[in-house]
Amino acid sequence: MKRLLVIALALLGLASAQVQVRISGWGGTDVAIVNGVLENVVRPALEGTGIEVVYEPVEGDFQQFIFNALSAGTAPDLFYVDIFWSRAAFASGKVAALDALGVDAEPFLDNLVQAFTLDGHLYGIPKDFNTLAIEFNKDLFEEAGVPFPNQNDTWETFEAKLKAVVDRLGDVHGICVVPDFARFGAFAFATGWKPFNEDGRTVLDENFRRAFEWYTGLVDRGVGVLAQDLGQGWTGGCFATEEVAAAIEGAWIAGFLRDQAPNLNYGTTFIPKDPVTGQRGNFIFTVSWSLYEGSKNKEAALKVLELLTSPEAQQWVLERGLAIPSRAALANNPYFQRPGKEPQLNRVVFQGASQGNVFPFEFRGLGADWMNIINEALSAVLLGEKSVDQALADAQDRLDRLTGHK
Amino acid sequence: MHRRTEALYALGFLAPYLSVLGVFFLYAFLRTVYFSFTQYDLFHAPEWVGFQNYAALFREDLFLRALRNTLFYSFFVTVVQTFLALVLAAILNTKIRGVTFFRTVYYLPSILSSAAATLIFIWVFQRRGFLNYALGWLEAHAPILLTFLGLFLLFQLVQVAWERRLGLPVHLFDPALATASLVLALALTWFLVALGVLAPREGIEVKTVWLNTRREWLGVPIPLWSIIIMNIYTTIPTFMLIFLAGLQDIPKTIYEAAAIDGATPVQQFFKITVPLLRPVIFLVVTMSLIGTLQLFDQVALIGNAAPLESTITLAYYVYNSVFPSGATPKVGFGAGAALVLALLTLAVVLLQRRFGISERGY
């Protein structure tokens, strides 16, 4: 009896010495990734420190979950912040400024660090990131006797190659087109167009129009097909069924293709350049680990944050082809030089962040409201419901009202 | 004394429910009223702005569109689904072979969760989905179908005219003659197709965009029509069941008496069934109005498959204001819209009670 009591007391003492750090992110494939990092990197490193990590993945709308939790004071110590809603989250005052806590962002890609910096303060350490690239079906190009798309392609030469594949094979399309700024925007950026000018106004100028006409014209010119006409919601879906020769996606397509089309022989290259400016455009899609301002275990949480974004953790994730590391030093990692379709895809996506006009996937906190206006203009033209003039005029009008310029 | 004890017991039993109601309804409602007069983003302290939110709401295009969509949707769906549910219930209340089978089959759609139903319908409504395919098939085969219909009518008219000339009092759609006409028309149509005189039209492909469009039909966005069709399909069975229960209560003798007096089934339906079912119709109409005014799930589930402005309803507007994708929550705004929705629901139900079908029976 006495012994039992001693053991119980010892356990109690141990429990009280433990500091629990709660971390949270979205569900889906991230559950396996984060669990892998925790098991292989974080927990072994935390042994003996008295810090225990509890991982709470959230299926469903993570933004809604975290905004609720932040306002109710029940947020986990560390959590994901997607670049898309980062500004709203950081402006809430509930996310801790990491620079004030002495966190060093130096080893991370500057583009990404900038994306999580607001008013001179750093609010998150980039966990990983993605950009867009062109994935192409090697077999289809070879069968048609057309050279593969490559990094020297402009919109015109890229389109000509796709057209040649379509003309020679007959039963395939060049590329799936989606009325989505998350894809089209890369081409608009290539022209030198910026989402906001100094006054915070969005101006759909001549440059924007040039990209808009090229992109929406792909279907009419017999190169593209609307994804929904193939019963798909994204360009990766069309690509997996080999109904199109190319897709515009990020590295996330790798896992999908591994599942859905394991034998698909694909290559990856950069987004083609604007023939006028000679530049390419791209998006940075990224997620940070951020710290809850009201966390009671800030010190322990910072230790966990350091481990989650450590070179070891990123190496572990990279080697499994699960995500693109945010540390600049990993650019020369031998993994990227390995042969095979996935290392090539990841290499192109990694390098995409530093080529041409690259913007983070964030729109001054206006989020989907801003993007929907452009998406709707794209879909109206692609479906033949409006002329380009009409669609752009309507979109400009709505954007002006949204940004308070009307 | 005895009464007081009884009241205490009653309160005791009601307490769990009352406390839940107090916390999740009364408290939440009062908070919503308060927030609707403030600017509040969930994080910083609410800032009192008076009626500013309400004024801004009625200046905002998206809100007005949501209001218009909601009102039309609610009115149209309630009228159509109440009528169809009643007709279906009346048919399934008759003594026909295998009626239990039909009752089960017609009830099935309401067992489907609205998430599952919406996903199935998104597939049906795709540009190369089932609906367009079916419409395209009908359009391509229209010459054959119309020929068949024309032949059927022709044979039927000839036969009826012949019988009547012989002095026989046959009905225009006499079943025996109709069967003969059907066989004849089918045979002749088949013959014409086999000869190559009739052929399906080539190259007909219906490409109506049902979801991803801003086009309107009768002043209502086409995607909203899609939701209307979907909702009517999934809600009719529930109301049909309620009507069926009501119909079982109407004494058969009334119908028998009417039949002896020479009332046709249609006359019986409008003169007996409808008036005697008034309390049930009231229940169904009220439930339908409240349900349709608060339509949310199907709009949310269709999501990006359709432009927001073409499907948005007030309930979705509220949600979208409080949890906008990629932007700061506008809770005050959302609370204002939620109250407008609540008042609207109350007003519509009261108006319905006052001027529409009331629960007072015959």
UniProtKB/TrEMBL annotation, chain A:
GO terms for cellular component: ATP-binding cassette (ABC) transporter complex, substrate-binding subunit-containing. Residues 1-21 form the signal peptide. Keywords: Signal, Transport. InterPro entries: SBP. One of its GO terms (molecular function) is maltose binding. Pfam families: SBP_bac_8. CDD domains: PBP2_UgpB. GO terms for biological process: maltodextrin transmembrane transport; maltose transport. Belongs to the bacterial solute-binding protein 1 family. PANTHER family: MALTOSE-BINDING PERIPLASMIC PROTEIN, MALTOSE_MALTODEXTRIN-BINDING PERIPLASMIC PROTEIN. This is Extracellular solute-binding protein family 1. It comes from Marinithermus hydrothermalis (strain DSM 14884 / JCM 11576 / T1).
Automatic annotation (TrEMBL), chain B:
Its main location: membrane. It is a multi-pass membrane protein. Keywords: Cell membrane, Membrane, Transmembrane, Transmembrane helix, Transport. InterPro entries: ABC_transporter_permease (IPR051393), MetI-like (IPR000515), MetI-like_sf (IPR035906). The chain crosses the membrane at residues 7-30, 71-92, 104-125, 131-155, 176-198, 218-244, 276-296, 331-351. Belongs to the binding-protein-dependent transport system permease family. PANTHER family: ABC TRANSPORTER PERMEASE PROTEIN, INNER MEMBRANE ABC TRANSPORTER PERMEASE PROTEIN YCJO. This is ABC-type transporter, integral membrane subunit. It comes from Marinithermus hydrothermalis (strain DSM 14884 / JCM 11576 / T1).
